[in-house]
Design goal:
Helices cover 68% and strands 2% of the residues. It has helices at residues 6-23, 29-45, 52-71, 75-110, 125-141, 149-157, 159-162, 170-178, 187-220, 227-257, 276-282, 285-303, 313-336, 340-361, 368-387, 391-401, 436-452, 456-461, 467-482; strands spanning 407-410, 426-429. Strands 1-2 form a two-stranded parallel ribbon.
C-alpha cells in the first residue's frame, strides 16, 4: 500500500486511527499496540504477502538476540552474540539484495557459469535491517533493553516509517508509545499531521511525478540527447528525487503525528547546502547518522587502527580518516543499490568529501554563490550516475550536458547567430523528444521552491491551527487527490 493511493488515504489510515483511539480507551495499553502491529503487517503485506515471513523471521531472530544480550553477563558471550546478530542481518541483506550482482560480476571476471537466481528484493529490507543492526549494537552497549516482544514488533513495523524510513532508534521511539498523554486524541497533532501530510502528497503527486516524465524520457534515450535536453534530463531527476523523498518523509511524519508520534528529522533542504558535507548532512539524515555511529566510528577506531602505524601520528590520523570517509560513502552507495552506478555514486561522494576536508583544513573558503554552484553542480553529476542504467549511459548524459555532442538550440534563436560562423558546432531543432517549455517552467518552479522557500519542517514549526492553515491543507490535499490518476511508487522503495 502506498501513501499516495486512495486505499491508504480514504480507507486504511482513517480505519486504523479510529480503531487505535477507540482501543486506547481500554485500561490495557497493549490492545492498541496489537492493533497497530496487525495493521502495520497488513500494510506491509499489501504489495506481496510472500515478503511477510522474511520480515517476521528477521524480527524474531533480532528480538531473541537482544534478549540474550540483555541477560548475558559475559563480555565475550555478549560480543559473540552481537557480532552474530550483525552478521546475520548483513548476510540476509547481502543474499537478497547483492547476490545476483556478485554472481554476475564473478561470472564476467572469471568466465564462470554460476546460475543467476533472479532473487526478488523484499520490500524495505534495507531499512528494517539497518534499524535492527542499530538496535543490537545499542543492546550490546547497554543503551537499550527491551523485554516485550509486542513493543519490539511495534518498533520495527510501525507503518509510517517501515518502508522507507527514517531509520529510528528504539530509545527515541518506544517511550512515546508509553506516555499516557500520547494515547489521547490530540487535536493539534491531528491538524499538524494533515498539514504536513498534504504538503508531502502534493510534492509527490504534482511535482515529483511530473519531473519523472522528463527524467524517464531523457534517460531512456541517452543516445539522442542534445545539450539542453541533457541538462533538462539530469535536473528533472535531481528534482524528482528531491520531491519524491522529501514528500515521503513529510507523509511519514504526518501519518505518525496522527498517532502522537514524532519521527526524527530526515530531510532538511539539502540543495541549499554550500559544500558537499553539508549537503550529505541534510539528505537522509538518519541514514547518515547510522553510518557515522555504527560504521564510521568503529571502522576508524578498530578496523584501521594499525594500518598506518609506521607513519607519524598526524599523518596516520589524516590518512585513516580520509580512507574511512571514502569507505563510508562507498557503503552508502552500495546500500542504495547493487550496481556499479551506485558504487560510482558513493565513490564520488567519498572523494568529494575528502577534498572538502583538505580544502577546509587549508583555511580556504569560497564565496556563497560560487560555493553553491560548485556543490549543486557536483550533486547533479553524482545523481546522473545514481539514476542511469549503466555507467556508459551516465557518461552519455554528461557528455551531452557539456556539449561534447554539439550544441543544439531552439529554432527561434537561429536568427541571433545568422552572422556567426558556427557550422557543426551549433544546430537548431524543435526539440520534439521532450516538452521543453513545460520542463523549463517546472524547473524554474523547482529552483524557487527548494532555494527560496521554507521547507515543510520549518513551516510545521510555525504552524498554528486556524482557518487559513485548514484551507491551505485541504486545497493541497484535494488538488493532489484530483490528480491522483495513476499510482507510482516512491523511488526509495527500490533501495
Amino acid at each position: 500500500m502506498l501513501f499516495n493511493s486512495f486505499e491508504f488515504i480514504l480507507l486504511f489510515l482513517p480505519l486504523v486511527l479510529i480503531g487505535y483511539y477507540l482501543l486506547n480507551r481500554s485500561a490495557n495499553a497493549s490492545i492498541s499496540k496489537i492493533w497497530l502491529v496487525f495493521c502495520s503487517l497488513f500494510f506491509y503485506s499489501w504489495w506481496n504477502i510472500s515478503y511477510l515471513p522474511l520480515l517476521l523471521i528477521s524480527i524474531i531472530y533480532n528480538y531473541c538476540t537482544g534478549i540474550l544480550l540483555g541477560n548475558s553477563k559475559s563480555g565475550r558471550m555478549r560480543f559473540i552474540l552481537a557480532m552474530g546478530g550483525v552478521v546475520f542481518n548483513i548476510a540476509l541483506l547481502g543474499y537478497y539484495k547483492y547476490w545476483g550482482f556478485i554472481v554476475f560480476n564473478t561470472n564476467t571476471l572469471f568466465n564462470t557459469e554460476y546460475p543467476l537466481l533472479h532473487i526478488a528484493l523484499p520490500l524495505a529490507i534495507s531499512f528494517f535491517t539497518f534499524q535492527q543492526i542499530a538496535y543490537l549494537v545499542d543492546c550490546y552497549r547497554g543503551d537499550v533493553k527491551e523485554s516485550s516482544f509486542l513493543n519490539y514488533m511495534l518498533f520495527i513495523t510501525f507503518f509510517p516509517q517501515l518502508i522507507a524510513g527514517p531509520i529510528v532508534h528504539h530509545k527515541e521511539m518506544m517511550p512515546q508509545f508509553d506516555r499516557h498523554e500520547n494515547r489521547l486524541f490530540n487535536f493539534e497533532n491531528q491538524a499538524k499531521g494533515v498539514f504536513i501530510f498534504s504538503i508531502g502528497l502534493f510534492k509527490k503527486v504534482i511535482l515529483a511525478d511530473t519531473f519523472a516524465i522528463w527524467s524517464t524520457q531523457g534517460f531512456n534515450q541517452v543516445n539522442e540527447l542534445s545539450m539542453i535536453e541533457g541538462w533538462v534530463t539530469a535536473l528533472s531527476f535531481v528534482f524528482q528525487l528531491y520531491f519524491d523523498f522529501s514528500g515521503y518523509m513529510d507523509m511519514a511524519m504526518g501519518a505518525a503525528l496522527f498517532f502522537n508520534i514524532k519521527l526524527p528529522l530526515n530531510f532538511n533542504s539539502p540543495y541549499k547546502a554550500l559544500d558537499i558535507q553539508e549537503a550529505w548532512n541534510r539528505w537522509h539524515m538518519t541514514l547518515g547518522r547510522f553510518l557515522y555511529q555504527y560504521v564510521y566510528i568503529p571502522m576508524n577506531k578498530l578496523m584501521l587502527k594499525r594500518v598506518f602505524t609506521p607513519l607519524g601520528m598526524k599523518k596516520q590520523v589524516m590518512l585513516r580518516t580520509n580512507l574511512s570517509l571514502i569507505l563510508l560513502f562507498l557503503i552508502s552507495g552500495i546500500w542504495h543499490g547493487a550496481g556499479w552506478t551506485f558504487i560510482t555514486f558513493g565513490l564520488l561522494h567519498g572523494i568529494a568529501t575528502v577534498c572538502h576536508r583538505i580544502w577546509k583544513k587549508a583555511g580556504l573558503k569560497l564565496p556563497r554563490i560560487p560555493a553553491w554552484f560548485l556543490t549543486f553542480g557536483f550533486i547533479v553529476i553524482a545523481f546522473t550516475f545514481f539514476r542511469a542504467a549503466s555507467i556508459t549511459d551516465a557518461l552519455k548524459v554528461l557528455s551531452s550536458m557539456f556539449g561534447l555532442n554539439g550544441i543544439v538550440l531552439p529554432v527561434k534563436f537561429e536568427g541571433l547567430f545568422a552572422h556567426i560562423q558556427i557550422q557543426n558546432i551549433i544546430v537548431f531543432d524543435n526539440f520534439t523528444m521532450i516538452n521543453m517549455s513545460g520542463a523549463i517552467k517546472y524547473l524554474i518552479i523547482g529552483f524557487i521552491l527548494v532555494l527560496c522557500c521554507r521547507n515543510s519542517v520549518q513551516l510545521m514549526e510555525k504552524f498554528k491551527p486556524n482557518v487559513l492553515y485548514l484551507i491551505f491543507s485541504l486545497f493541497l490535499l484535494l488538488y493532489s487527490l484530483m490528480n491522483l490518476t495513476k499510482v507510482s511508487e516512491f523511488l526509495y522503495f527500490n533501495f
